[in-house]
Amino acid sequence: MTTPTIRASAALADVRYEIRGQLARRAHEMERLGYDVISLNIGNPGAFGFRTPETMRLAMIENLRGADGYAHQQGIFPAREAIVMQQQERGLRDVTVDDVFIGNGVSELIDLVLRALLNDGDEVLVPSPDYPLWTAATNLNRGRAVHYPCRESAGWAPDPDEVERLVTRRTRAIVIINPNNPTGAVYSRGVLERLARLAERHRLVVLADEIYDQMTYDGAEFVPLATLVRETLCATLSGLSKVYRACGYRVGWAVFSGEREGAREYLHGLELLSSLRLCSNVPGQWAVQTALGGYQSIRDLVRPGGRLHASRAAIVDAVARSRYLGVVRPMGAMYAFVGVRREVLPDFDDRRFALELLEHKHVVVAPGVSFNTPYASHFRVTLLPEPAVLEDVFGRIESQLDFYAATVATGASGAALRVIARS
């Protein structure tokens, strides 16, 4: 009897998430074989020794008895109240707990806010490079991701005029990631003002991904986009994962502000979707009030002398010493988007290089094409390891690039490459 083939949904054809894709699977295989692999492809603080603040853990423990049952579909009141207070401190005076939706991380909320919004063929403006879940969720929810370029020559900031030329009658929303993943850019107030006015002119829903909101360096100013958007709907997405080093708690939130009267049907739809999944993780929600109202220890990590600041400096210095690499100094988030100089390696392919780096140097980086770029000349690394580890990693990267340059120049066969690289 013929074994039936079970095929994946056709909806997955345009979905990529290579941060946890082929390279990550191969890295796990190598670790099972006994290799020590340094994984710089995922921004997972717990994997590099960062701990969630103890006060947050205690808040969860003390409220475990109240976490056995389902909670309100939008989240427990103390958590939503704390989120409202944070928004009010940032200048949003008219936000209430009814405007807050708590989800199982920002990842779930990205899916929900798009699922409640999109019909077949609706377009969403998404940055390139992007955090790939935005493109994937748009495609999975029957929409079409239209990528607006953020160019390295402009410090990875978008050109609002260029963005506006991409607006069509089918455009429903614009995604703005600030501070940016993967580039580490922090957008200026002027750029954000122009993007806000663009969205208002075309009545686009603004989807502000601000999960790295307090993670900035060297005096870079983070401007909450919701404080600039008044005449259209704005959703601010953030959570505990990054700033509070609590990825496993799976707690994120979306706060709606701006023009909400005309969005009541949409918001009711979002509440319906929230109800269908019953509620988000309740124990983790009990950490929100303590996190937002307590000591903001992230400031110690990003200021001069702090670990993230030092690791960022280690990457910038290592790139400056390289024959092959360049980078725009990241001003926020926990990543650097490193580029290869095309004049030195004109035929560089980020996927091939990432695979060879893993196989031969036991380091995992995320190829730039993972972030929906039309070019294959970059890779993303996280700032989370200790500076000494990053110095070692970039030594391995330089060595692999030396080999890459030599083998591309000589046209060596794939078999020869593997033999030479392991010698």
Can you identify the CATH class of the largest domain? Alpha Beta
Unreliable parts: 412-423
Beta-strand residue fraction: 5-15%
| CATH arch. level architecture of the largest domain | 3-Layer(aba) Sandwich
SSE arrangement:
Blueprint: H1 22-32, E1 38-39, H2 54-62, H3 77-89, E2 100-103, H4 105-115, E3 123-128, H5 132-140, E4 144-149, H6 160-164, E5 171-177, H7 189-201, E6 205-209, E7 233-239, E8 252-258, H8 264-276, H9 282-285, H10 288-293, H11 298-302, H12 307-321, E9 325-327, E10 335-340, H13 350-361, E11 363-364, E12 366-367, E13 378-382, H14 387-410, H15 414-422
Parallel strand pairs: 1-11, 3-4, 3-5, 5-6, 6-7
Antiparallel strand pairs: 2-8, 7-8, 9-10, 10-13, 12-13
Helix pairs in contact: 4-5, 12-14, 13-14
Descriptive notes:
With 423 residues, the protein is α/β, with parallel strands linked by helices. The chain folds into two domains: 10-50 and 300-422, Alpha-Beta Complex (Aspartate Aminotransferase, domain 1); 54-293, Aspartate Aminotransferase, domain 2 (3-Layer(aba) Sandwich), CATH 3.40.640.10. The chain contains 15 helices and 13 strands. It has a seven-stranded mixed β-sheet, with helices on both faces. Strands 9-10-13-12 form a four-stranded antiparallel β-sheet. It starts with 21 loop residues before the first helix and ends with a helix.
